[in-house]
Amino acid sequence: MEVDTIQKPALAVDPPDENFDPDLVPETGEQYLQKVMYERGKCPVVVVAAKPHNRHNRQKALTGLGAVPTDDVKNVAPQALMPTKEWESMQNQKFAELRDIITSYRGSAQYSENLQRTHVFLNFDDRKQLHEYCANNLPYVRILLSIPQRNLEMLLEYLHEWLQDSEPTSGQSSQDEPSDPELCDATSTMTPTGSKEPLRTGCRKDWITQWIYAILACLILPLEPYIHSVLRDIAKSCITLRNELKQEDEAKVLPLNLLISIISKNFKQADLADNVP
After folding, report:
1. DSSP letters for the chain
2. What would the pLDDT profile of 233-275 be if each residue is shown by its tens digit?
């Protein structure tokens, strides 16, 4: 049965006849509605978009400022670079404990005091300034907690773009700022040995992975679907970077494995996990 036969019209307007000219500009409300009826009749009931397929020019899907190939990332890294289930379990436990500490701190009296004495003014419309700041400063939790979540999400997009950038970074992270005794240092968890000294060797972009890890620990759940897409692309980029490493690059692969594990386990992206439960 046609839809028009079971819907009661709100306005009694005669349908366009054979003398109707769709190129004329409507001059009355009735003519406008007739043109709408004419254009609706020209629309197909179902529209299917053709999937682009060109191996020589791979299509990319944008998530904010970052871009990754739309086809699935294949893991071709040497087996020696793949994390074990025990290692992943330990890292995810550390991450969960860190998030619990941060959540508890948000509800404490010290949280408001921290916001008042944290004076870091960042222009999130100035990517160059953000890049310079992140490359030369550790991602202390007390700094991240003073940043609105929408800005943290924006920074995640920037970090994803920088992670994909093939150019080596020139900034060296500064360690002059003392750690806050009220808070744990999120970057310390980046070091697989458990040392309080942040990881500075191996991957030339380890400052980027440190910032991503710290932001993940500070995000307030639930997240917008769009941010889950950004996190998926970060994990895919880590898999791609891991695929480029050699078997002896164990030190370089640690932060990549960590982000893949954290995102797949804690942000519902199990299909990207290395060890499926």
Report:
1. --GGGTS--SS--PPP-TT--TTSPP-SHHHHHHHHHHHHHHS-S---PPPP--TTS--EEEETTEEEESSPPP----GGGSPPHHHHHHHHHHHHHHHHHHHHHHTSHHHHHHHHH------TT-HHHHHHHHHHS---HHHHTTS-HHHHHHHHHHHHHHHH--SPP-------SPPPTTS--GGGGGSTT--SSPP-SSSTTHHHHHHHHHHHHHPPSSPPHHHHHHHHHHHHHHHHHHHTS-TT-HHHHHHHHHHHHHHHHHTT-GGG-SS--
2. 999 999 999 999 999 998 899 999 999 999 999 998 989 998 7
